[in-house]
Amino acid sequence: MPEGPDRSSTDGSAAEEGTPEGPAPTPLLAPADGLPPVVADRDALRATAAAFAAGTGPIAVDAERASGFKYSQRAYLVQLRRAGAGTALVDPIPMGSDLSDLAPALTGPEWVLHAASQDLACLAETGLAPSRLFDTELAGRLAGLPRVGLGPMVENLLGLALEKGHGAADWSRRPLPQDWLVYAALDVEVLVELRDVLTALLDEQGKLDWAHQEFEAVRTAGPPTPRAEPWRRTSGIHKLRKPRQLAAVRALWEARDRLAAERDIAPGRVLPDAAIVDAAVTAPETAGALGGLPVFRGRSQRRLTAYWWSALAAAERLDAADLPRPTAPAEGPPPVARWADRDPDAAARLAAARAAVAAIGTERTVPVENLLQPDLLRRLCWTPPEDGDVAGFLRKGGAREWQIELLSPGLVTALAARA
Fold it and tell me: Which residues belong to any copy of the HRDC domain (predicted)?
């Protein structure tokens, strides 16, 4: 590889200043091999595929979306790095978000991602999926690290400071600014090195097999189950109790969602949640009155007054039987705050189970949420298996074998607790 630019600051002061805990991290200011040109056509993509097929070792992978700006979660930039191939910045948009030409070169080697569950879906939309996976964020959690963001982990484990500032940017913008591309390239610059350090740490702690089971669970996880009533997540809806108000929220939320999907704009940029709740509380009697409310009287919203009013009017015409319930339909156990009244023994089981899991988490230095999904623990304690097969219950609920082996004995004891 050609010699890259100096990764330290220009005057060296930051690296020399240090902290009470040790020397200050060395700023990582530019890719070691220089910033590569963006891959934006088929010929360049095929050349990239050939280079990565000839490379060696794991492949660092990252993707940039425009979550706060677009309705879709598509990838607007894909970053790759592999020993012998260097770094590639791939723009999927000019190629119709089809990067399948890369797939053969990326199939087989382990992919290294940070917070992989956030990127795997958008990468799959481009035709790319890993056959093996290493998730550095998840590895950090299992290793008991106090901070598992990419920046803090690179700083604490590698002594390097990553550039910050563009993670929440609108990556659908074209052309992409030079400093954004540098930021994107640096996100995969040291991922493989970080993976190697974490692998050694997990192996030393006896957790490497745990990590491999967790990575495989992330890799093979299907799409999340859609919420039955997603409109109930509207911010501020807790202020509303009347079914007619909730119907208004539902109607405006669904109208906004349709428009946001059609225009590929983040829903909150089409109409803020606060405006939806305000309209439901105010209950305007005419389109003109709706257009006089804050937000709705803005210039961009005035053109949509008839659209929003149509949704509200339809909600107002609903029969009482078609109005939403004041609370969401129950899915699984009731809220934990009600357990003591509804089933004191279940509350006692949950308290004992939580204590058992917390003790193991402290002993093994693993966050309790990574030891077992909280919802699965609640379901176990609310309705224990009649045959007493705790291990089978956990396995059916998606727990990994290492979790089952570690937790089952303590949970069996906890399920015997009584109020």
Answer: 242-322
Please report the DSSP string for 202-239 in residue order. Answer: HHHHT-HHHHHHHHHHHHH--PPPPPS-GGGG-TTGGG
Instruction: Report the chain's C-alpha Rg in angstroms.
Output: 26
Residue ranges of alpha helices (H) inside 230-304 are 243-263, 267-270, 273-282, 287-291, 299-302
Helices (H), 264-389: 267-270, 273-282, 287-291, 299-302, 305-316, 339-342, 344-364, 368-371, 374-382
| CATH classification code of 230-322 | 1.10.150.80
CATH of 13-220, one of 2.30.30.240, 1.10.287.3610, 3.30.240.20, 3.30.420.10: 3.30.420.10
Whether 336-414 and 13-220 are alike in CATH topology: the answer is no
Q: Which residues pair with 267 in a beta bridge?
A: none
pLDDT in tens, 267-308: 999 999 999 999 999 999 999 999 999 999 999 899 999 999
What percent of the chain stands above pLDDT 70? 95
pTM strictly above 0.70: yes
Structure tokens at 349: 């089981």
- Name the residue ranges covered by the structural domains of the chain: 13-220, 230-322, 336-414
Token pair 């805990």 in the structure block, residue: 21
> Which of 3.30.70.1290, 2.30.30.140, 3.20.20.70, 1.10.150.80 would CATH assign to domain 336-414?
1.10.150.80
Axis crossing angle, helix 344-364 with helix 401-414, rounded to the nearest 10: 130
> Which residue shows structure tokens 């210039």?
299
CB contact at 8 A, 370 and 352: no
148-172 pLDDT, tens digit per residue, is: 999 999 999 999 999 777 878 999 9
